[in-house]
Amino acid sequence: MTWYTLLVLAVAVERLAELVVARRNAVRARARDGVEHGRGHYPVMVVLHTGLLAGCLLEPLLADRPFLPALGWPALALILLAQALRWWCITTLGPYWNTRVIVVPGARLVGAGPYRFLRHPNYVAVVVEGAALPLVHSAWITATVFTLADAVLLTVRIRCENAALTTHAVPA
């Protein structure tokens, strides 16, 4: 359980790094008259993702979940792939990437990197990580609850982003 705790803490540190990048990019976007959308769902997203990390640590302890190598190792590989995809998205969007939905009017949509293949590739990383991180240590309840709740949140979030981009951004 010690190494799994370190993995979850590493993911938490990575999320904090994302918030640092997001805050910096939010300041830049607002300086360019960026418009924020979807403020109402943002606190829900923060609570949900914090709950994921807490559930990853609590469920294996409270329910005595074992590490199952046939499940844990592939799940770990998926987490690493999800992190690579997430940071590919972040670096591709550069100053336009954010955890909030902030669109600079007149900015061009990005069609490079993973955005050549998918409109919202970052959410592929979110979905994969949300299912895989708990499964590294057999926390199937956390994986299920997060995945279902995240599906609802992502429905709201993607609609919000699409509306914001349609309203303010210029097609690539």
TrEMBL record:
It comes from the Bacteria. The keyword Transmembrane applies. It is a multi-pass membrane protein. Keywords: Membrane, Transmembrane, Transmembrane helix. The keyword Ligase does not apply. It is found in: Membrane. Its main location: membrane. This is Isoprenylcysteine carboxylmethyltransferase family protein.
